[in-house]
Input
Amino acid sequence: MRLAVNIDHIATLRNARGEQEPDPVAAALLAEKCGAAGIVCHLREDRRHIKDLDLARLRLGVTTKLDLEMAMTAELQQIALKTRPELITLVPEKREELTTEGGFDIARHYDVLAAYLKPFNAEGIEVSIFIEPEKKAIDLAKQAGADMVELHTGLYAQKQLDEEIALELKRIREAAVYAKSLGLKVVAGHGLNYLNIAPFRNIPEIEEVSIGHAIIARAVMTGLEEAVREMLRIIQ
Output
């Protein structure tokens, strides 16, 4: 299983002082050096953490895979087409949320979504959609032109009772198997940390996990290099 590291909260820490450090690009390059298979950043509409200049510098520096998380807006579409990340991931976005709260509502936005993805398909930029682990959402993602789905693991991360955790893992596993059977690549993310990630080693259809907050929080105590290497030891 591969690890993609989200470096948004390096930028959050930098922006707290409005200065230049810590540098999210330096963090991305260090994560790559430690074995990360990709770098994830979310260019939010309000630019609360990653800024446009960060994205431009990440495109120049990242040599593994740059995954641009973004809302489905005309502005972000143009930025993504100009920047040409290896992958875009469409996520729902609300200004008042602290972090992404759930999967993209494909059924509600399907017609707009299918048209929105066409330029990315034409330019050879892979498209992922952040969805709930549900068959209907997977079917619609495939039909709309996605190459990949990222299964939302936030509900799993919130569960406390063993039986509830097991049921949510079963739901994620079944969704991963189904998505793979349709020819979609499958990744997972949201709320995953050093305590709850281990069971995902037993879901081979999930080829990559996207983790940010847990690694950055651990890095405050141990350093980013050790934080990335520890997560890799667990998932591998």
